[in-house]
Each structure stands twice: as structure tokens, then as C-alpha cells.
Amino acid sequence: MIEAGEPAPHGARYDGRGVNFTLFSRHAEKVELCLFSREGEEQRLVLPARSGDIWHGYVAGLKPGQRYGYRVYGPWDPQRGHRFNPAKLLVDPCARAVTGSVADDAPLYGGIAQPDGQDSASCMPASLVIAEDFDWGDDRPPRTPWGNTVIYEAHVRGLTQLHPEIPETLRGTYAALGHPVMVKYLRHLGITALELLPVAAFASEPRLQRLGLHNYWGYNPYALWAVHPDYASGEAGVTALQEFQQAVKTLHAAGIEVILDVVFNHTAELEEIGPTLSLRGVDNASYYWLDEQGNYQNWTGCGNTLNLSDPQVMTWALETLRYWVQHCHVDGFRFDLASVLGRTPEFCAEAPLLAAIRACPILSQVKLIAEPWDIGENGYQVGRFPPGFAEWNDHFRDAVRRYWLHGELSNGELARRFAASADLFQNPGRQPHASINFITAHDGFTLHDLVSYNHKHNQANGEDNRDGSSDNFSHNHGHEGLKANPDVVQRRRHSTHALLTTLLLAQGTPMLLAGDERGQSQYGNNNAYCQDNLLTWLNWQQDDSGLVDFTAALIQLRQRIPALTADCWWQEGEGQVQWFNTSGKPLEPEEWERGVHQMQILLSDRWLITINATDAISDLALPDGEWHAIPPFAGEDNPILTTVWHGPARGVCVFLKQS
Predict the structure, then answer these.
(1) How many helices and strands in the chain, by DSSP H and E?
(2) Is the peptide bond before 632 cis (omega within 30 degrees of 0)?
(3) Hey, which residues does 334 pair with through a beta bridge?
(4) CA atoms within 13 A on the CB side of 358
């Protein structure tokens, strides 16, 4: 009934007459393939062949939709890292699809000192065989140049769950991402790349389940090849994978790239007392970084750390990424806690996985973005990733917040961040796009909360407000919370405009958090990872069309300025950038470090950005020439010509020089 089959490709592959199964396990002694009928009856078949560390077998007659899992036999020796337990049904590490969810059930726990003998099949998600037959037609990746890229970070469910113009059955799903209403909105904004929080199958942590909460962000994966099934609409005859693929195809047709946030630093198996779902039972000693006692190295803060320096684990990671590109046509990846990718165990920019990604003819052609830190020793690596990778730039985030909201930093420091943080990223082989500039992200305050709260308000998370960062450089403008008098509201609006303008007209790659252009609030919660509810879902009934149009106009303007789109480092005397003081003259040395927080930035000899980060209204003498104030950045209904600008407090304006 089962034949030897082939040791490749990874996972379960349907060939039209049956399915070939493969599983990597270096230390296993026996592997059982477990097939499940629609009624849940289990049939166990021993994989009959082993090629190196790959176990494999072929079963004729199986078809797409077949549910399966593995039971792996081997030593139980935690001090040597071995936690084999055949009582635990395991998800295929290369499963293309899964069904079911991970609940906090006792049989999922494999044991601590001794293996737990409770069978877990009844409460485990099942792996699914799929047919890789999606019709991509004439789909082509947009291949947007980095210099023209504007990223919109969003959550699959949160983006559309409350959208009144999307059919209720589609809201919060993959299908909604490609709905004409959503595509039209993204195109109106000028977004070129939709960056999605994790869509690989993930679980809610047991602690959250006990509190009646759910993991919302998705940074707790257990099946990295499979789309999260809960984001599918359930339309008859359409699988979750097909629905995701169709969304990508539709967005591509509109010229919008899709970037996935991926988690290759830890898994949902958590610490030693966590559930046994997949890798722990397949080959714990190979997949995870362990200390000399066999315990997990917790460089992620999530209980375990994947060992991506192991050759087979590295191959698994590479094949996972290639699968998303080749079979789902995604346009890039943002790597969560990406320092783990370079650990050997010390971080090394030339680590095997990073080098292999750069050398891969498939992966080297897509956008690669690192979150350049983890919580391990020497985990903070901003600016140290190799060419080919862009990086989240928290120096930009903090500097812009401190300059505009607290007046703490110098003009020179703002200029460094505005110029793509060349002090960090101008290394051989790297261009300005390597700096992913952001003011806010999913992790932290929204933009509206950044100007409305001095303190985090995370009580709903069940951790007594201890979670989330306390160092936010936020400013409530004199009143804590959303409701405030008109003067406070106006000053918050000025700050919002200034922050957005600095983000979207700075050199580097801008990333906008979904909803910031609409005044989205999480009521001061800066760590809403477990809030899958009205707190985090975008409120489309809240109509702030003025802020939406302001943001769209900024993005449109950005695409017109060669100094921003050329993606080359600014050089003195080449007409790319000039820095002026309030008198319209070049900034003096003392003004860079100790001057008043006012200056003017001239880009490509034509576009002038005036900055007043003080609480006083002031006059700015513009540089020589006739200047045309550009609505809506000038705050005027009609364009005017001027040589002196009456600058608002904490305000920013944009001018175009007349030819």
C-alpha cells in the first residue's frame, strides 16, 4: 500500500495518481505517516525509505484534500535535546495547508521529565494534501523599483473586517484584500506594496486562551508553508490557499506588490512546557538552538529559537521562502526578529542563511526587509545586514518623534535621519532604500494615539499594564486621551501633518501603518497583539477624508521628486539636497547642533520643505526665487506666490519653485 517514493520535493506532493511524502528527521528511529478519513479514522503507515536524513514514501490513490500527520519514534532524552513522543500527532513542517486550530488541550503537551502518553490526534490540526493547480494566467510581479516603493503595513482581518462597502461574507478575509473597493482605496493613497502581518498558520498562546483572548498579530506560527485558514471566506469550492493566491493576482493587476511578514525565529511550541505540535516531535535537537542542558535558547522572548545555521533547517527555511514566491507569487518578505537569521550563534552578516538568500536566483530578486534585532546577546544589529536587505530603522522612528513632539534633538540629527540614515546604511552595495523609515508600526501606538497619549493603556491585555514599551516619545499635547478641547485637537493635527510629511518626503523607503491616514486609534494600547476585536480593526465609519487626501497628496508628491525616487546617496553640490535656516541661507555649523528647531530642506532644486518644530508662529524667509505654496501642505485653499512664509507652530509646509 505504501511504496518507497522519492526523497524530494519537501512535504506532500500530489502527482495526479498519488502522493509522495517526505520528512526530515536526523535523529528519528521510525516515522509513521498517519492518514485520516473524513470520519476521523486513523491509518498508520511506516515510511519505508530513508535517504540520508530524509524519510519518504509514496501512497497511490490519495488525492488533494487528504488529511494526514506524522508520529515520529526516537529517544526521549531532554538533556541531549531529544523529545520524541509517538503519542503526539505532528503537523508536517512542510504542510501546504492545514485544517483545524490549536486549543489549550492537555494531550498536546509532550511531557517534561517523562514523555506524556496521552494521544493528541483528536485535538491537533491536520495537514492537508493540496493540488498546486492555481491558474495564474498572465500574472506578472509589479517589480516596483525601491525608489518608488511606499509600503502599507496591514493586518488581513483588521484591514477590512468593518468595511461597510465590502460584502459581509468577505470582510476580514483574503478575498477582501483584492475586492475592488480595497484596491481602489490603496491606489487612491498611492500605495505600491501591501505588507501583511503573518499569514502562515499560527496559534494563540495557551496563556491567552485561558484569559479568553486570541493572538491577533500572528507571530506564533506552527505551519510556515500554510496560509492561516481562519482568514478564508469559506466560499464553496475555493481553498484558503486559492483565495490568497487570487488576492495576490488581483493586487498585482493593480500594480500593488504583496510583502509577507514571516516568522523564522521561533514557533508556537514555546518553552519546554509548551505544546508539541511539529518540530519538537520531528527532531527537536536539529530545529532549535539548545544549551548544554538541552534547554531552549530564548533569544526571541517566546520560549524557543530556531537554529537556522543547521544545514537541513536552513534548507527548509529557504524552500519555505521559495514556495511563497513561486507558488503564491509574493513580492518580498519582512523577517521578524531577523537577527536570528544571522546567528551562528553570534550574529554574522555572512551567516549561511543570509548568504544563501542573497545567492538564490529566486529570493535575491524579491524585496527583503529585516527587523534587525532580537533579545539575545548582541541582538541589536541595525545597519549591519548585508546588501540585498533593507532594515526597519528605529533610529528614524525615535528621532522624528523626539524632534517634532519633544524638541529634544538637533537639526543635524533630524537631517541625518531624513537623509536615509547614511551614517548607518551607506555601506558598499547598499542604497538609501535600505532604510525602512517609519513613525509607527503594528507594534506600538498608532499615529493618532502617538499625539494623544503620554502613557500606554494596555489593561485589556491581561498583564496589569506591564506589557508594551514605556519609552514611546509620544506627546498628548496637554490632555491624556482622545477627547480634548479644540486648541489641543488643532495642535495634534499640526503634529500629525508634520510627522506624515517627514515620513513620506524623507529619503529611504517609507512605511505607513494602515489606518494612520484615517486617524485610527487603539485608545492608548501600544501592544494590541491579543486584541482581535473593535480595538484594532480599522474603523471605516470614521471619515477623515481630509487626512486621507493629505496623505495621498504627499505620496503623489514624493513620486515627483527625483532626489527621493533615484535611490542614490545625496552628494554635496549635485542639486539633490540643500539645508537652509530661517533666513533662507545655508545652515551655519552652530545651527546644525544648537540652533532653533526650524529649517528648510530643498530637494532637487525645486521642492522646498519648511520646518517649524517650535511652539511659536514664526516667519521664514525662503531661499532666492519665487515659491508656489502647494495645497494642501500650505494650509491654503489657493496657491500663492511668496518669499516669506508665516509658519505655523509645529508645522511643515511644501513649496514648488517657479521655473
Answers:
(1) 16, 29
(2) yes
(3) 261, 369
(4) 16
Q: Is 440 helix (H, G, I), strand (E, B) or coil?
A: coil
Q: Which helix (H) or strand (E) holds 502?
A: helix 486-504
CA distance 394 to 439: 8
Summarised one tens digit per residue, pLDDT across range 409-460 is: 999 999 999 999 999 999 999 999 999 999 999 999 999 999 999 999 999 9
Q: Are 374 and 299 in contact (CB under 8 A)?
A: yes
Contact 73, 99 (CB under 8 A): no
Q: Can you tell me which residue has the cell 551567516? A: 351
Task: Please write the tens of the pLDDT for every residue from 466-491.
Answer: 999 999 999 999 999 999 999 999 99
| Residue 653 near residue 647 (C-beta atoms within 8 A) | yes
Res. 637: pLDDT tops 70: no
Separation between Cα atoms, residue 369 and residue 415, nearest integer Å: 23
Position 232 scores a pLDDT of: 98
Which pLDDT value is given to residue 634? 64
Question: In Å, what is the CA distance from 193 to each residue of 140, 230, 256, 344, 509?
Answer: 14, 23, 5, 32, 11
Scanning the structure block, which residue is given the C-alpha cell 498519488?
Answer: 18
Angle 240-241-245 from CA coordinates, rounded to 5°? 120
Residue 271: all three cell numbers together: 518553552
Grid coordinates given for 60: 497511490
Find, among 508, 524, 635, 497, the residue nearest to 567 by Cα: 508
Through-space distance between the first and last CA atoms of the chain, rounded to whole angstroms: 80
CA-angle at 228, arms to 61 and 538, nearest 5°: 155
> With left for phi above 0 and alpha for psi between -120 and 50, is residue 318 left, alpha or beta?
alpha
Distances from the Cα of 635 to the Cα of 546, 597, 653, 655, angstroms: 12, 20, 8, 12
* Identity at 430, one-letter amino acid code: R
State the catalytic residues: 336, 371
Contact 297, 305 (CB under 8 A): yes
Answer whether the bond into residue 9 is a cis peptide, omega within 30°. yes
Angular region, 468: left φ>0, alpha ψ -120 to 50, beta rest: left
Q: CA triplet 45, 46, 49: central angle to 5 degrees?
A: 130
Residues 576, 602: Cα–Cα separation, whole Å:
8
Give Cβ neighbours of residue 365 (< 8 Å, ≥ 6 apart): none
Q: Give residues with Cβ within 8 angstroms of 213, minimum separation 6.
A: 204, 461, 462, 530, 531
Query: Are the C-beta atoms of residues 222 and 165 closer than 8 Å to each other?
Result: no
Residue 43 bridge partners (DSSP): 35
Find all residues with CB under 8 Å of 253, minimum gap 6, and list them.
Answer: 139
Alpha helices in 309-420 (DSSP H): 311-328, 352-359, 394-406, 411-418
Over residues 2-13, the pLDDT tens digits come to: 999 999 999 999
Cell numbers for 562: 527625483
Answer whether 374's CB lies under 8 Å from 347's CB.
no
Candidate from 95-104, 342-351, 615-624 with smallest mean pLDDT: 615-624
Q: For residues 558 and 510, is the Cβ–Cβ distance under 8 A? A: yes
Distant-in-sequence, close-in-space partners of 152: CB < 8 Å, separation ≥ 6: 186, 189, 191, 193, 194, 195, 511, 512, 514
C-alpha cell at 280: 519538537
Residue 75 phi/psi, 5° resolution? -70, 150
Instruction: Classify residue 371 by burial, with Cβ atoms within 10 Å: 0-12, 13-18, 19+.
Output: buried
| pLDDT confidence of residue 388 | 97
Q: Is the peptide bond before 386 cis (omega within 30 degrees of 0)?
A: no
Cα torsion 651, 652, 653, 656 to 10°: value is 160
pTM across the whole model: 0.97
